[in-house]
């Protein structure tokens, strides 16, 4: 893989700014004789890592994701860098962990100095497009030539945007309303006092069918506009297109057709429901299990079953939208010339351990699905069991497209894994959450073990081979004292967390 150092870049003629830390801007690639590969990055929000039919989940109706997996490489142990929207997405597009890109939480704008993949592809002659959610927090475009997002969807909805505002019930930037918090801070929530409120006890509804018609859903908007982009621009020049969907993120309110696919009465609670040893887990985990603050109704088993049903219905809806984009790629004759990636920004606990949502380091939350199909590189239907991180995606895509990759990314390219999926890397992967707060925590996955350090709470150590559900915290066990100390030291050698 060709790399351009920061010194080499600065000696060039460009006057563009470069980041103080992280990858330097790469020198544009020479014009190739043949058109380089396109990139289509399909991104969902809050998709559990193994909630796909091809992974054996009996509830998941994901025929289009399954079909993509059968034509590429599926990573069984892929991780996000931070189990919450904005920091995770910043890592996906910059190739940096949170403590390097400094997008600390969902209210932190992405620092301009850290260039995104759109910048590198744009300098190589690609047309870069972002259609859907990316949670930039402010008005920066971060290098994208073509961009449509929540605000464009609200404009298309017109007066029907009120239906979505009422389904959220209150401000929820994670669900795109507002997309940019600053726009509401001077005058307050413009919907306050005008919404027709329902009887929910917390901020997030258990789940039900949406009152929006199916063509009006955000997933339909993203699919429709991605198709339009491919039809208008797909053959003009190489493209780097991100189609980013909201579902299965809350509100768990799928279109009626998908909601009818699942009966709450047929849903089973996870095997770990009600079985967590409360004396042996961090205090914040105990608190989350006992309170379920955002949706208190989920302490009741009937509501829990409804939520599970509506989650899978939302997943079925986003899968169908993804299928529309993939079908267009094939119809236009672009399939053989386009690298396709599918992933999500983080997972969803969905009742495992009695927990809901994300923000924890258990596998359903910090794990993500990851499928890569690269014509001429990947075989069909192959699986990689090597633990990998999403910080590795930018250098991977640059290498696949023959674009010089700058030094400074926080993870190596995955092209070797794509060419030889059976090889297992010994490199650790990491995750972080709530940095610069008293609730900061850090994770290292190395081999079969996962160690989690909490700045002001109980540490965790799990043997994922012997305890896949992470029910036996070994951090304080005499038999694993040395392993806990070893992984803690590895974690601190990587980044020493500030104690607060």
What does this structure look like?
The chain has 16 helices and 17 strands. With 500 residues, it is α/β, with parallel strands linked by helices. It has two domains: 36-425, Alkaline Phosphatase, subunit A (3-Layer(aba) Sandwich), CATH 3.40.720; 436-500, Arylsulfatase, C-terminal domain (2-Layer Sandwich). It has an eight-stranded mixed β-sheet with strand order 6-5-7-2-8-10-3-11, sandwiched between helices. The protein is globular, with a radius of gyration of 22 Å.
Short description:
The chain is of the alpha/beta class and 500 residues long. The chain has 16 helices and 17 strands.
Low-confidence stretches: 1-20
The total domain count is: 2
Q: CATH fold name of the largest domain, please?
A: Alkaline Phosphatase, subunit A
CATH superfamily of the largest domain: Alkaline Phosphatase, subunit A
Percentage of helical residues?
25-40%
Largest sheet: 8 strands, mixed
Key descriptive features of the protein:
single chain; 500 residues; alpha/beta; Alkaline Phosphatase, subunit A; Arylsulfatase, C-terminal domain; eight-stranded mixed beta sheet; four-stranded antiparallel beta sheet; globular; disordered N terminus
What is the fold's blueprint, element by element?
Layout: E1 3-4, H1 6-10, E2 38-45, H2 63-69, E3 73-75, E4 78-79, H3 85-94, H4 98-101, H5 117-123, E5 127-132, E6 146-148, H6 150-157, H7 161-168, H8 182-185, H9 218-233, E7 239-248, H10 256-259, H11 283-291, H12 301-331, E8 338-344, H13 363-366, E9 367-368, E10 370-373, E11 382-384, E12 388-389, H14 393-400, E13 405-406, H15 415-419, E14 429-433, E15 441-446, E16 449-454, E17 460-463, H16 481-494
Parallel strand pairs: 1-13, 2-7, 2-8, 3-11, 4-12, 5-6, 5-7
Antiparallel strand pairs: 3-10, 4-9, 8-10, 14-15, 15-16, 16-17
Helix pairs in contact: 9-12
């Amino acid at each position: 893989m060709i790399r351009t150092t920061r010194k080499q870049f600065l000696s060039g003629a460009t006057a563009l700014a470069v980041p103080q830390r992280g990858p330097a801007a790469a020198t544009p690639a020479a014009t190739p004789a043949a058109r380089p590969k396109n990139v289509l990055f399909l991104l969902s929000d809050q998709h559990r890592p193994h909630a796909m039919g091809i992974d054996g989940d009996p509830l998941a109706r994901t025929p289009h994701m399954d079909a993509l997996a059968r034509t590429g490489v599926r990573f069984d142990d892929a991780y996000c860098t931070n189990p919450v929207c904005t920091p995770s997405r910043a890592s996906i597009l910059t190739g940096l962990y949170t403590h390097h890109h400094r997008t600390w939480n969902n209210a932190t704008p992405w620092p301009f100095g850290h260039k995104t993949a759109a910048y590198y592809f744009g300098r190589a002659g690609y047309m870069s497009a972002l259609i859907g959610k990316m949670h930039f927090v402010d008005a920066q475009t971060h290098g994208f030539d073509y961009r449509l997002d929540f605000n464009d969807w609200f404009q298309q909805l017109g007066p029907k945007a009120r239906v979505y505002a009422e389904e959220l019930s209150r401000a929820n930037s994670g669900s795109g309303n507002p997309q940019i918090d600053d726009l509401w801070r001077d005058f307050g929530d413009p919907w306050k006092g005008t919404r027709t409120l329902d009887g929910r006890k917390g901020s997030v509804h258990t789940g039900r069918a949406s009152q929006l018609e199916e063509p009006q859903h955000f997933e339909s908007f993203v699919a429709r506009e991605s198709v339009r982009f491919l039809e208008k621009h797909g053959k003009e020049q190489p493209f780097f297109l991100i189609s980013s969907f909201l579902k299965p993120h809350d509100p768990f309110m799928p279109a009626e057709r998908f909601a009818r696919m699942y009966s709450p009465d047929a849903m089973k609670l996870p095997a770990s429901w009600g079985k967590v040893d409360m004396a042996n887990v961090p205090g914040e985990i105990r608190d989350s299990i006992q309170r379920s603050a955002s949706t208190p109704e989920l302490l009741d088993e009937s509501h829990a079953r409804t939520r599970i049903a509506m989650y899978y219905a939302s997943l079925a809806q986003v899968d169908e939208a993804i299928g529309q984009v993939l079908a267009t790629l094939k119809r236009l004759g672009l399939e053989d010339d386009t690298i396709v990636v599918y992933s999500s920004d983080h997972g969803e606990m969905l009742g495992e351990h009695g927990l809901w949502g994300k923000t924890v380091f258990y596998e359903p939350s910090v794990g993500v699905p990851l499928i890569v199909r690269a014509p001429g590189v990947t075989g069909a239907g192959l699986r990689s069991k090597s633990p990998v991180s999403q910080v590795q995606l930018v250098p991977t895509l640059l290498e696949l497209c023959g674009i010089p990759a700058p030094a400074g990314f926080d993870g190596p390219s995955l092209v070797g894994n794509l060419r030889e999926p059976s090889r297992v890397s010994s490199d650790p992967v990491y995750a972080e959450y709530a940095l610069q707060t008293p609730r900061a925590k850090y994770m290292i996955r190395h081999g079969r073990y996962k160690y989690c350090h909490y700045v002001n709470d109980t540490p965790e150590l799990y043997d994922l081979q012997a305890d896949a559900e992470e029910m036996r915290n070994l951090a304080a066990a005499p038999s694993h004292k040395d392993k806990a100390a070893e992984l803690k030291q590895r974690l601190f050698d990587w980044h020493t967390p500030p104690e607060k």
